[in-house]
Each structure stands twice: as structure tokens, then as C-alpha cells.
Amino acid sequence: MAFMDTENASSSSSSFPSSSSTPGWKYDVFLSFRGTDTRKNFTDHLYAALSQKGIFTFRDDEKLERGTFIAPELLSAIEDSRFAVVILSRDYASSSWCLIELAKIVECMEKKGLIVLPVFHYVDPSDVRNQRGAFAEAFVKHQERFKDKMEDVYTWRAALTQVASIAGWDLHDKHEAKVIEEMVRKILGKLNSTYSVIHKDLVGINSRMEEMVNLLAIGLNDVRFVGICGMGGMGKTTLARLIYKKLHYCFEGSSFLANVREESKKHGLVPLQKRLLADIFLEKNIDFLDVQWGINMIGKRLCHKRVLVILDDVDQLDQLEALVGERNWFGQGSRIIITTRYQHLLIRHEVVRVEIYKARKLNDDEALHFFSLKAFKKDYPLEGYEDLSQKVICYAQGLPLALEVLGRFLFRRSVDEWESALCRLKESPERQISDVLKITFDGLREREKNIFLDIACFFKGMEEDHVVNILQALYDKPKIDIVVLLEKSLITISFGKFWMHDLLQELGKEIVRCESPEEPGRRSRLWLTEDVIHVLKCNTGKEVVKSIFLDSPPRKEERLNAETFSKMKNLRLLKISNVHFPQGLKYLSSELRFIHWDGYPLESMPTSFEPEKLVELIMPCSLVKGLWKGIKSLERLKLIDLRDSWNLIETPDFTKVPSLEQLILQHCTRLSKIHESLGELKRLILLDLNGCKCLKSLPHKISLESLKVFILSGCSRLKTFPEIVGNMSCLLELYLDGTAIEELPLSVERLTGLIKLDLSGSAIREWSRTFPSNNLKILSLSGCEALLSKSSNRFFNFPLMPRRSTCPMGMLQRSLSGLCSLTQLDLSYCNLQAIPDVLGCLSSLTELYLMGNNFVGLPKSII
Questions:
Q1: Whole-number Å distance between alpha carbons of 619 and 559
Q2: Which of 155, 188, 221 is the last residue of a domain?
Q3: Are 108 and 83 spatial neighbours (Cβ–Cβ below 8 Å)?
Q4: Are residues 97 and 183 in the same domain?
Q5: Which amino acids are annotated catalytic?
Q6: Would strands 497-499 and 492-494 be described as parallel, antiparallel, or unpaired?
Q7: What is the pTM for the complete model shown?
Q8: Residue ranges making up the domain that contains 489
Q9: What residues of the chain score a pLDDT lower than 50?
Q10: Per-residue pLDDT reduced to its tens digit, 161-207
């Protein structure tokens, strides 16, 4: 069987999967003995030897009141033990208590496979078996005392005969120390063989066990802390339990403290400290008053003892500080294992990163095997259930908890019931699963919860940088919150994108749905098409709505009531499309940070809209003619994207938009006027005017000191390039292809960082004498026939060019020779009659395009 967490007792009907032939037990050994005969000698020495080897042994407390009826806790301890060592001493049978124990031991031997190991403590085994001598005398007294309960006496006789018939250890003529050593070795051997059986029945556990054992490095004589971290339901507890069962005998003492989070919350830390000491020293009456006293006792009593301690499901640093605070609390060779959902706890407690094991989810093959064991009691799905099983595997995404819960729920159900259950899962997750996953969420700060819900509802799978920018607009400096979510395994960042387990995403969405199960307009976040349409059509939105994010637009254009926006005064994120407001739009929340409105249906933004907190405005294919009139203060606005907005005529005044980093106006085919303030945007990184075919002019001067990419491709009516004022060395890419620009100004010498220049299909006739060339790597002159016409007397006219050299080919030769960094050159469709010999001097060139020319040979230098 696969493994799963047991961090929440209510999450599963059993602790963790184990083989039916080897049920779990609480104690390794139960000692049955006559206290007056052996407690202070043989039994005491045997108990100490078992404890020293980490064999968890139950020995009844001599202070328990003896009477006719045995204490229930002793009978329970027998049931929960793997071995029973029966020390048959001279007066053993004289104790009805011992005989009741013995009868229970025989019962468990027959029904539960309890292994019984008898020790004949200086008595003849045949006397015990046949009840002679002292044993006969004892039963005579029992018959007199229990004459009304003779059935019990007969049961005791039979039990004694049966146990005495088992091969055991006879202390006659043997050293007790040797016998004890042999017994301990035998018990350890049987325990180890039992563990290996368990491992075979745990899907995927062997490789994980091996990784953990390697990390623990048992052979080294240091004190080592090792953490097992991961999201809830991943199998951390099960892995820790198996490690404990496999290795605890290697230590002088051991303790497994389960559910530390829950126990400390209910009862505090002192009971956990007491249990830790009681487990290791096997003392029941350890007592102290407060946590500090417990810290002192743990540090002093364990510092010379080689121990194995496992703290399961830790969620607070004070739990670690109270139970395993310092390495010097423990003797050399000790190992401390901590399971937690919070990786940073381990780091704060100086558990170095190389000693942290991240729990791995089951792969698809392991998941199918495990699920089949739960759902079909087989290693594979039943016929007719194969596809349905694969849907469950896809849903669970390797989470053992989900596979366990769903497998048990679907056991012996029909195909129709399976399909119904899977359909129901799409609406809401199983409670047993979500309860375990929600534990971590409940432990978050309020801001961390909000960011988790935002990612779950809107941002899963989106680019990290983009999401961080949005979150930065919503929450001041959210970096630490994101790190916390990463450390608590609630989110991941992979290949530059935000991700989370599907079940965690479902949990987040379910939390939001539960804010108002019946009315979406009372929820903080809306993402389902039907919910958004309902709210906007029925005017049910309230102030509680903070975000509307519609990734799947309605199939048909919806005519909605814009009045509902006037109620959503706290709206911060808005992403919708394919909607129409017949009465217009009079109000949008001033709290908006992010607007993504595909096909915005109106000619302008509402006049009352004061978007002082707006960071991104994305409205592709809109009907807008102008964004706003006059000057508006948008101090935080970083992105304007109006691509394919064919009605746009002019850009607004950018005077008070100082933070703008991207302006995308590509294919705004009616755009004819760019406001002069554009040239003063100091933080602008991308300016995209691709396809603005009605654009005739740009601001006369530009000082865009942060600009990296400038795209004027397809601006077929643009004839002049603006003067460059100040430092524009950041510009890396300049696209002038398809423009009507014939000449570049002398100020292009300021573009010293330019790497790519595209002049293909342009009207360029002259490249200024002072154009920088040292860094240029990509140059496209495709279709620039005007450059090679004889009327272009100053083509590529660098200072080194002789004034008398008016041959276009000669000028091309001389100009290209200065491009020492050029890696890609496109001279296609330039009507070249010959290929410039200078190409052979371009040592960095890797790509050369010459198609569509009239040359008949290649220069020798080309090699």
C-alpha cells in the first residue's frame, strides 16, 4: 500500500496503511512475571537490556493495586504488544493476576499472532507443563478460592500447559547475562524481519526510505537533525513512522511524539516533554511544573544517551525549542527527525538545507497501484473502471491522502456511482481531504491568506514577474508573504510560473465559495463565467467583491447592467471580455489596480474614474477613442496595452504618469497623434507602435533613458525620427521596418547600446555619419533598394569614408567593415549586383541572408 499522512486524526479511519498480516502494535514486548520472585533481579536486568536496544517494553508498575481483577490497562497492553516474555518462576502460578495475564497472552497468541517467549526461571519446564510441585500446590489453592469460577481455573491450567510447551530459555546452569543477550538478539531479529514485510506492502516507500536512511547517516557519531517537509497528505508522518520502526532498536532510547501541533494546542508543551522522557527512560512518574523545568531535565538527562526522537507535525518554533532545543541536549550518535509543513521552521532551528528531505508525491504508476489497492483490493483496476481510475489519478496528482480517501469511498461502487462522484468532485473536494489541507491555510497571517487565495483563484500558471507586479500593487512588498507560502508548500514556482497542487487550488476556491454559498455577489473573488454574468446582469455585487477575473469569456455578447459597478467600491482586479453595457459606464472603483478588458465597448473611460492606484491597463480590441482628457494623476501606472484598438485617435497626456514602463499601441490603425509628453517618460522600457499606419509624427524630441525596445514597424506614413536628447544608451532594439523614414538625425549617436536594427522595407536613403556600430549584432536591410541607388551619395558615410567615394557598393563595403560584433546580416532583396568582399572580415557573423539579389558569384573572402 502507498503511504499517507496521519496529521489529522479525523482525516482517516486508520493511522496509516499496513499489511493485514502484520498489524501495528504499541509495544514491542510485554513482560509477564511474578514481582516478588524476579522484579529486582532477572526481570529488571532484562528490561534494562531491552530498553537499551530501543525495544519498547511494557512492564507493569509495582505500585498498581493488586486484586482479584486485573487492571484493564494491562490487558490492553498485551493486545498492543508484538512479543510477550513470560518469566515462569517458582511462585508465578500462585498469583491469579499472573494467570489472568497468561490466559490473555494465549488468547492473543491464537487470535492476533502474539509471539510468546517463555523463560523458565530456575524451574523444571516439565513441572510447569504438568503442574507439579509448587505449581500443583498453587492450583489447589486456586480451586478452593475460585470454586465458583472453576472455568477460569481450567483456562489458567490450559494456558500454563500451552506456554510451557513452547521452546524457551531454561536458566539452570546458564549465565543470566548470556540468556538476556540471546533473548534481546532474537527479539531484534524478529522485529527487523517484520519491518521488511511491511515495506513490501507500501507502494513507493522503499526508495523514500533509502533516501531518508542515507540522510540520517546512522553510522556517524554526530548529533543530526533531519526534517521531512511537504504539504499535508503527502506521507510525511507515515515515512517517519516507518523510519522509527526500522531504526529505533539501534538507539539507547527512542520516542515518537505524534501530532505535536494538535497536542500542544490542546494540552500545552509540558505533557509532551513528560512523554518524551517517559518514552526514553520508560518511567511513568516523571513530573515537573513548567516548560523551562522540562527543558532543563531533557538537556541534562539525555546529553549522554544515544537516542532517536521523532516530532511529528510541528508548526511552531517554541515546540522545537521545548522538546529538542539544542544539539548538545543529546548524546553522540543521536538522531532527531522533525515532520512539518513549514520548511522555514527547520531552517530557523538550524536544520541545514542538506538535512531537509522534501516529501515526494507518488508518480502515476505508484498512484494507480495504491489507488487500486484501496478501491479494488487489487494491484490494478477492475475491467470497465480503467478510464475512471485514470481520472481519479489525474485529480489526486500523486497525493496519497486523496488517493486513500477516494479509494475507500469508491470501493464496491458501480460505474454510475463513480461517474457521479467524479462529477461532484468538480464542484467541491471531499471534506476529509480539504480538512487536512486547510490546516496549513488556517495557520497563515491574514495577508498570506489573501495572497494564497488570489493565486488559487486567478494566478496559477501565470508568469512569476507578472504576478509579482500585480501582487505588489495589491499588497505592499509581498515578497516575504510569497516566500512563506513557498516554505509551507502551498505554492511552487517552476519554470518562471506560479503553480500549486490542484487540490490546494480547489481548497482556495472552496474557501471563497463558502463566503456566500448562494449569492456570488457577496464573495470576495469571482472567476466563474456564470457567477460574473449573474452579478453584472442582476446587479447583486456588493462592497465585499475585490476581484473579478474572467479567463473564459461568455460565448455570446452579454448585455449587462453597469450600475452594479457602483456598488463594488473595493474592486481591485478586473478582467472581463465580450460584455456590453447599453446604458454606458458611469463608475469604476478608484481602488482598481489592474484592468484587463478585452473589447472594451465604450469610447472612453468613465469621466468620474480616478485611477490613482491603477498599475496595469490592458484593453485590446477596445472601442476607445481616447483614454482620458486633460491631465490625470496615475503615479503607479506601469503598463498601457491598447493593441488592436482601431478607434484610438490620440494618446492622452502622460505628464503625470511617471512610472509607465510599457506602452503598447500596435495596430491602432487610426492613431495619428502622439502627445509630446510621451518623450519625457523616464521609466519607459517598451514602446510598441507597430502597424500604426496613420501615424505621421512622433514627439519632436525624446529622452527615454530607460527605453530598451522601440518598435515603429509598419508606420508607413512616418517620415521623421525624433531628435534624441540625453542618454538613451539603454536602447537595445530599434525597428524602423516599413516606415517612410528617409534619414536619421545626427543624435542617433547617443544610441550606443543598440544591438538590433531593422530597416527592412523602409525608405531609408542615408545612414548618418555618426551612427554607432560597435555593439550592433543584428542588422536587417532587406528590401532597402534606395540605399544602393546612385543618388544616395552619402550611404553609410562614416568619417573614414573618402568624400570622393560616391560608389554605393564601395560605401557599403566601407560601412560594413566597422560592424565587428555583427552576428546576423540581412541583405535580401536589395538588388545587389555583387556581394561585398568585406563580408569575409565580419568574424562574428553567423547568419547571412542574400536571397532576391542579382549577383552571379561569391567573393573568395566568404570562406
A1: 19
A2: 188
A3: no
A4: yes
A5: 101
A6: antiparallel
A7: 0.64
A8: 444-513
A9: 1-23, 62-68, 196-198, 200, 768, 790-806
A10: 999 999 899 998 889 998 998 898 788 777 765 554 445 457 777 78
